[in-house]
Amino acid sequence: MMNSSKTPCVAVETARDYYNSEDADHFYSTIWGGEDIHIGLYESADEPISVASQRTVQTMAGYLPELRTGDIILDLGSGYCGAARYLAKTYGVQVKAVNLSEVENQRARELNLAAYLAEKIQVIDGSFESLPFESANETEGFDVIWSQDAILHSAQREQVLAEAFRVLKPGGHFVFTDPMQADNCPQGVLQPILDRIHLSSFGSPGFYHQVAEQLGFDVIRFDNLTQQLINHYQRVLDETERHTDKLIGKIDPDYIERMKTGLSHWIEGGKNGYLAWGIFLLQKPESKI
User: Fold this and answer.
1) 188: enclosing H helix or E strand
2) CB-facing half-sphere around the CA of 183: CA atoms within 13 A
3) Less Cβ around it within 10 Å: N or C end of the chain?
4) Domain ranges in the chain?
């Protein structure tokens, strides 16, 4: 049966309201990488955000076994569907893209249409805490689940991973990234970041590893790439400062200043060793016959 009994938590509703705002939509679609609004993998300090962001997508795809035409991928927190378009175009897969922001989803549908990929990507307004899909079995379900820097917005992260396990085929893979706190992060030091994004906590590498195993996933690998989190937020801050004059008039000046302050907190937290970021690869075991 479909799991539709749970309603989105306050954290998810807060995130929806934020990403639906005109200020956020304009900022993320222009400064924060455009099509790919997630942390990038940088090869140089001044590399364009969009290039580094696409490299993350390409790298994550390389973690997976060979994708085949006809595979069905579920993208949790799909943003503007940059990853979905790359996967659909490169591998010929079908993508179900679940995202909470109706504003982002409308922009994603337009970009999918312009790329002649609308038939391969279905954009779904919804929360990844309660996925509108049947539980998987040997023949029905998703071959791969994908998520980039989205799960942090849930206050029910165990539920998000449980839903992923539920709809993933036996033998399927779940690849994701998420901004986290370090496993040894002192209590209270990340409060300025949490306050800024209206969260009460972060996950951590140890948390995701433990929850994944409790649910029945095999943890195939986790690559800690926290320096790239620092690189990314520094690049976004640099671009925000460089384009402030152009942004004023299109974005509320208070939003811009709050963004600069928030980005500085992320950079500081990363440099102090309080934050973590990297790529997880999980696998749902094959069914035992």
Assistant:
1) none
2) 8
3) C
4) 10-278
Q: In whole angstroms, what is the distance from residue 217 CA to residue 174 CA?
A: 9
Q: What one-character-per-residue DSSP string does 6-61 give?
A: PPPPHHHHHHHHHHHSHHHHHHHHHTS-TT--S----SSTT--HHHHHHHHHHHHH
Tell me 139's DSSP state: S
Residue with tokens 């001044």: 46
Query: For the chain, percent helix, then strand, then coil, each to nearest 5?
Result: 45, 20, 35
Q: In whole angstroms, what is the distance from residue 51 CA to residue 32 CA? A: 11
Mind listing the pLDDT tens digit for each residue in 195-226?
Answer: 888 888 999 999 999 999 999 999 999 999 99
CATH 3.90.190.10 fits 10-278, yes or no: no
Check: CB of residue 182 under 8 Å from CB of residue 163: no
How many angstroms separate the CA atoms of 89 and 8, rounded? 32
Note the residue count of the chain.
Answer: 289
Q: What is the mean pLDDT of residues 31-40?
A: 78
Question: Could you tell me if 147 and 128 are in contact, meaning their C-beta atoms sit under 8 angstroms apart?
Answer: yes
> For residue 94, which amino acid is it?
Q
The token pair that represents 128 in the structure block: 């990844």
